[in-house]
Amino acid sequence: MGDLRKNLNFLKENGFNVAPFGFAKNEGEAIQIAEEIGYPVVFKIPSDIHKTEVGGVLLNIHDISDLKKLGRKFVSKLEEKGIVFDGLIVQKQIPGVEIIAGIKNDPVFGKVVMLGVGGIFAELYKDVSFRVCPIDENDAEDMINETKVKELLSFRGMKINKANLKNFLVKLSKLDVKEMDLNPVILNNDGYWIVDARIME
User: Fold this and answer.
1) How far is it, in rounded angstroms, from Cα 57 to Cα 135?
2) Which residue, 92, 112, 142, sits at the end of a domain?
């Protein structure tokens, strides 16, 4: 089990856009972080396991009332499941469309970069494209065009900057890690935002 805080900080230090977050050990600290980064926020358990499978994510916390009421229920449910943790990640909830990106170690080709439709449907649709690392902008363009990510760029009237996404993929392909799963990465008019990361260094 990895540490989501460590993973997100590693990506920030390497110049990637990470959705603002903090770590709270109690309700007071959670309120302070939420006020600093701005509502709506998300609560997450700090381990990098598949959080949706264990109910380890709480979305749509819009104000201090939500934070107290929903947060206490969230913590109680996790404790009932026997999930032990010493605090929660409080993260800005970013609007947009979800993609999955990452690095995999292929037995034939070696290190490859991956792109596809993200969120809870990533494993269902398996709509992904791969390229051997490192890639250039032309490779990134091809990866986008090979997947439904191309359609997401203008989904619901959004005007997502494709150049930002291509730069992200090129940069990702040069990162020195064994394997990495970024799901989801949020795309919106402001660019891309990493909100979850599992890393094998």
Assistant:
1) 33
2) 92
Q: Could you give the percent of the chain with pLDDT greater than 70? A: 92
Both 116 and 62 in one domain: the answer is: no
Query: What is the rounded CA–CA span in Å between residue 24 and residue 17?
Result: 21
Could you identify the residue written with the tokens 């990493």? 194
For 107: left if phi > 0, alpha if psi spans -120 to 50, otherwise beta; the answer is alpha
Calpha distance 34→20 (Å, rounded): 10
pLDDT tens by residue, 59-96: 999 999 999 999 999 999 988 888 877 899 999 999 99
Which candidate, 113, 92, 98, 88, places its Cα nearest to that of 18? 92
* pLDDT (tens digit per residue) in 49-65: 655 556 789 999 999 99
pTM, full prediction:
0.91
Measured CA to CA, the distance from residue 41 to residue 35 in angstroms comes to: 9
Nearest to 21 by CA among 164, 198, 197: 197
Provide the token pair at 52. 């949706």
Cα distance between residue 142 and residue 150, in whole Å: 10
Phi, psi for residue 78 in degrees, rounded to 5: -65, -40
Q: Are residues 123 and 85 in the same domain?
A: no
pLDDT at 1: 45
